[in-house]
Amino acid sequence: MEKQQLIQTLQAMAKEGKKTSEMLRYLVLDIGQEQQLELMILFTEAFDCLLGEVTAIGGWWHDDTAELNDNDIDAYISPLINNWLAAQ
User: Fold this and answer.
1) How far is it, in rounded angstroms, from Cα 88 to Cα 81?
2) What is the pTM of this model?
3) Where do the domains of the chain lie?
C-alpha cells in the first residue's frame, strides 16, 4: 500500500473512533510496517503534528514487550488525533 493510502486509512480509522493502539496494530500486523520511525512519520503526516509529539510510538510494541502498553500509547497520542479531528 502506498504512503498516501496509508495516511488516508489512518485518518478514516480516526474518524471511525479507532484507538491509536488499534491503528498501530493495523500498520504493524496487517501492513507489515515494523520500522518505528516510519510509524511516527505516518502519524505526523496523517494528523498534522510534529515528530517530537509522536515519539512515544517508539516506546510501544504490539506484543507488550516495550515500555508502553496500549493504554499508555492511547493516552499519549489520542489528544493529537482529537485535535486533528476537531480541525476537520
Assistant:
1) 11
2) 0.95
3) 3-86
